Task: inverse folding
């Protein structure tokens, strides 16, 4: 694949050099929620890029194997191994006894090399997503191999530059979150006004 100028920097390196990549937890049988469970299992439906983790339906279960290998926490990045999109999701909250399922790759940045928020931003760039999509195999629901993902190039600028980019991205996310809340409030007010109009007509 021909690289764009963005990827031809002298400070670029394969993702597998900048971060540790491992598959998520794979169960031998279907995982069902159990009140006596000891761990949470994050699945694709629970992770909402731009909105965070939806805990309302997260499975609680008891792992069959060593859970420590698959535990995720703040600073880890989840990237779908299968599907039509491979948007990276940065975990920004402290998690306890929480595992990522095998629908994800867990990307753990080497913080001495690359900052987690910067890496998540880089992975979600249209140019990077195009590279990932090009490596996806299969018909219908595509799959990207661990090796192919590890070969994706990451430009690693200075820590100072990474920090500045993180600040800009954070402000943009805060703005998007505020806009989303405002939209929800407007919708609620609209529905209340309409319901009030209906009641007034019936009286």
Result:
């Amino acid at each position: 694949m021909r690289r764009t100028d963005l990827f031809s920097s002298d400070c670029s390196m394969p993702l597998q050099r900048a971060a540790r990549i491992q598959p998520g937890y794979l169960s031998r049988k279907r995982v069902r929620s159990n009140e006596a469970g000891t761990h949470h299992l994050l699945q694709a439906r629970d992770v909402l890029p731009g909105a965070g983790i939806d805990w309302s339906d997260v499975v609680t279960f008891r792992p069959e194997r060593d859970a420590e290998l698959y535990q995720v926490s703040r600073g880890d990045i989840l990237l779908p191994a299968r599907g039509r999109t491979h948007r990276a999701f940065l975990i920004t909250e402290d998690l306890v006894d929480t595992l990522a399922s095998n629908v994800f790759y867990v990307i753990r940045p080497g913080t001495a090399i690359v900052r987690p928020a910067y890496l998540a931003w880089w992975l979600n760039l249209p140019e990077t997503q195009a590279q990932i999509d090009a490596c996806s195999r299969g018909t219908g629901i595509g799959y990207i191999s661990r090796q192919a993902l590890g070969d994706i190039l990451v430009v690693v600028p200075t820590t100072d530059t990474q920090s500045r980019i993180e600040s800009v991205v954070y402000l943009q996310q805060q703005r998007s979150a505020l806009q989303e809340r405002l939209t929800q409030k407007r919708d609620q007010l609209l529905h209340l006004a309409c319901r009030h109009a209906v009641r007034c007509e019936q009286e």
